[in-house]
Design brief:
Blueprint lengths: L7 H10 L3 E8 L4 H9 L6 E5 L4 H8 L8 H23 L4 E10 L10 E9 L6 E10 L4 H21 L4 H7 L9 E10 L7 H10 L5 E4 L5 E2 L1 H5 L4 E5 L7 H15 L10 E7 H4 L7 H13 L3 E5 L4 H9 L6 E6 H7 L11 H10 L3 E6 L1 E2 L6 E2 L8 H13 L2 E3 L12 H9 L11 H10 L43
Parallel strand pairs: 1-2, 1-3, 9-10, 9-12, 10-11, 12-13, 13-16
Antiparallel strand pairs: 3-4, 4-5, 5-6, 7-8, 7-11, 14-15
Helix pairs in contact: 1-5, 2-5, 5-6, 11-17, 12-14
Length: 502
């Protein structure tokens, strides 16, 4: 990655030699690892107005104000506010016509002496792309993966140089900027699990797409954003919280997706030691699902995200195809209960040992990892529309050699049947709703939430004919005949491990 771009030393020197760039560095927690590069390569006097490290908490509070935590987004933003304001206050009148000011800041928790802390940090830059320009800003959250403090500090310094260089020279190409953040590093040393662009230089940037890029490029295994499109940092959202997840394609979000989640929420909220007000509920889409037809279609991705947002859902994009890997990721942030809701068809796939051939312990190892952190599966029934029979955990078809394991997990309460579902939604399948949308069969609107139906019609999502607001069809306006089964080409299906068949 980034083999055609300059090395770290050259990047720092290029910044120093750019006569427009002038600003300050403020670094807390791991020494002044970023600014050190700019001093080291020479010509720093033309770039650095001030360098400081308010390492003592009382000193930091006196400069930037009180803060509950020192390695958090709020502290970073306070630092950027303070330092950039000082630059403009002190220097704009004397050199503002020829200078694009900036403030770089980071607050980091590198490996402590005993190796017991979470090694992570917040890093950001507020800058003018051109003299007298309005401000722009990039904020990232990093996790340092090296096992030695000195190596973590080294990696942190390199990321910081990459961020400064990208902000100054690649701000017009945010995709390249993101890719460049790990120049001269690797994903074995640094993970970047959150990035947010804002300000005049990035007025056309969609941060949800940038979050997807992090996962797509391997800089992170997951990214998260809220219903209003705000980029979220997973550890700050999930820290010490009970978590409930529904995995799906959401193409589109249907009534059965909503019913499945609501039924699971009702059960989950009544679990022991669960405070319903603390539960974080996530709609998760895997990268394999997004890439089911080859390359990622950004318009399709944003359509899925927008219909989820219409129902107020927080979205998690992950590269964790296997459920046990998703469970391990969530358990990184919480010791509270984790719930995953899925359809019965997905549960059948979960017990197919072909997915676990890469594990030495096979399916037993995968289930040991999946259920070790007080995780529970909530299963939504599957309707056979020919016979009218429901597939539930009681009659699920499991291979004979796995029947004892399956029954043990059911008896232990690790797998629970959802019996509080709405029978009216059982005949809804998202692939068939998608087909109806694409052939302009308007009965599809009765199989999705009203807000989703309206959004799809007005914006022309998923191949729907774009409809003026005055012509939008409301679910109550037409009858809802049963959906005719869509012939299934097994070769075209994404395995249910990547999303419920609903």
């Amino acid at each position: 990655m980034g083999s055609e771009r300059p090395n770290t030393e050259r990047k720092a020197l290029d910044v120093n030699l750019d006569a427009r760039r002038y600003g300050s560095f403020a670094e807390i927690g791991a020494g002044q690892e970023v600014v050190r590069w700019f001093f080291r390569v020479g010509a720093a006097a033309g770039t650095i107005a001030k360098s400081m490290s308010a390492y003592d908490m009382s000193v930091s509070d006196a400069i930037y104000g009180q803060c509950e935590r020192y390695v958090c987004r709020k502290r970073l933003e306070d630092m950027l506010d303070h330092e950039h304001s000082l630059n403009l206050q002190r220097l704009r009148e004397s050199r503002g016509d020829t200078t694009a000011f900036f403030a770089f800041a980071d607050t980091v928790s590198a490996r402590n002496f005993h190796g017991t802390n979470d090694c992570h940090g917040w890093m950001g830059i507020r800058f003018q792309a051109h003299p007298r320009d309005q401000d722009s800003q990039i904020i990232i959250h990093v996790r340092m993966l090296d096992t030695e403090n000195a190596l973590q500090q080294e990696a942190l310094g390199i990321v910081g140089v990459n961020l400064l260089y990208g902000a100054f020279f690649l701000n017009h190409e945010p995709d390249q900027l993101i890719e460049s953040l790990l120049d001269n590093l690797s994903t074995r040393r640094i993970e970047i699990d959150m990035i947010e662009f804002s300000g005049i230089a990035f007025r056309h940037v969609d941060n949800r797409v940038m979050s997807l890029r992090l996962v797509q490029l391997g800089l992170s295994s997951a990214a998260m954003f809220s219903a209003d499109g705000e980029v979220l940092q997973p550890s700050e959202v999930l820290y010490k919280k009970p978590i409930l997840v529904e995995r799906g394609s959401f193409r589109p979000l249907t009534n059965v997706n909503v019913d499945m989640l609501q039924a699971a929420q009702e059960k989950f909220h009544h679990e022991e030691d669960i405070d319903p007000d603390e539960v974080v509920t996530l709609a998760e889409i895997t990268m394999r699902n997004l890439q089911a037809n080859g390359n990622i279609d950004l318009r399709d991705f944003l359509a899925r995200v927008d219909v989820l947002a219409a129902c107020g859902m927080t979205v998690l994009i992950s590269d964790y195809f296997e459920y046990y890997r998703l469970a391990a990721y969530l358990a990184r942030y919480t010791k509270k209960k984790i719930g995953i809701t899925m359809g019965a068809a997905s549960l059948i796939e979960l017990f197919d040992d072909k997915y676990y051939t890469k594990l030495d312990g096979g399916i037993l190892e995968s289930f040991g990892r999946l259920f070790k952190n007080d995780l529970k599966l909530y299963i939504y029934p599957l309707l056979d529309r020919k016979s009218g029979e429901l597939t539930t955990i009681e009659n699920l078809k499991i291979a004979d050699e796995l029947r004892t394991l399956y029954q043990y997990l059911v008896d232990k309460g690790c797998i629970e049947q959802l019996d509080n579902f709405n029978p009216a939604h059982l005949s809804t399948f998202s692939r068939e709703v998608l087909r109806q949308i694409q052939v302009n069969d308007t009965s599809w609107v009765n199989h999705v939430p009203p807000a989703v139906a309206e959004l799809i019609q007005q914006r022309g999502f998923f191949g729907c004919r774009r409809t003026p607001p005055s012509e939008v069809i409301q679910p109550a306006a037409i009858s809802a005949p049963p959906i005719a089964p869509l012939p299934i080409d097994q070769g075209q299906l994404v395995p249910s491990l990547a999303g419920s068949i609903h």
